[in-house]
Target: 5-formyltetrahydrofolate cyclo-ligase
Amino acid sequence: MTDTLDHAKRALRAELRERRQQLSDAQREAAAAGIRDRLDELVDSLGATSVSCFLSSPTEPGTRPFINAAIARGIRVLLPITREDGLLDWTVATAEGQEIESVYGVPEPVGEVLSPIAVNDVDLMIIPAAAVDRSGMRLGWGRGFFDKTLGSMDRRPPVYAVIYDSELIDSVPQDVHDQPVSGVVTPTRVQDLSTDS
Model:
């Protein structure tokens, strides 16, 4: 990655992080409720019975209401566990699931650890993002876990990034290893995006 590209990504992430930190608790709760409803719609439209999702950090659009509702509906939900090699292990979410803070400062589930290939069987992947552009390119938070996971999959299911409405933007800086998504889920809509994958 060139210094210019790295600087552009860092600057955009810092701006987005600051915007997220400005949101009130009421705005976060409303966003989480909207995300739950939109993800429920997406799961229903795809007929998904097994999904991967993530435990949202305090500033991210909340995913826990969706995860709890999905478990109650009998949908199998896999949650990621970070590894030192940059890949992700997985565990099956449970209604009374416990979590810890990872070494990266993000919530991580506690449970029986499944290997990185466990995600190959899901019908839908729901992943975090800092922003996504209208062509489907995703800007993550710089650790590369989801880019590596997506890049290593032979058969990729639909992949949707969870973001706030204002984070669907015209373009994001991208590098060769960055992976596109199929669409985005915001508190107000599900939007499919054109990608080359």
Q: What stands out?
A: The mean pLDDT is 92. The chain has one domain: 3-192.
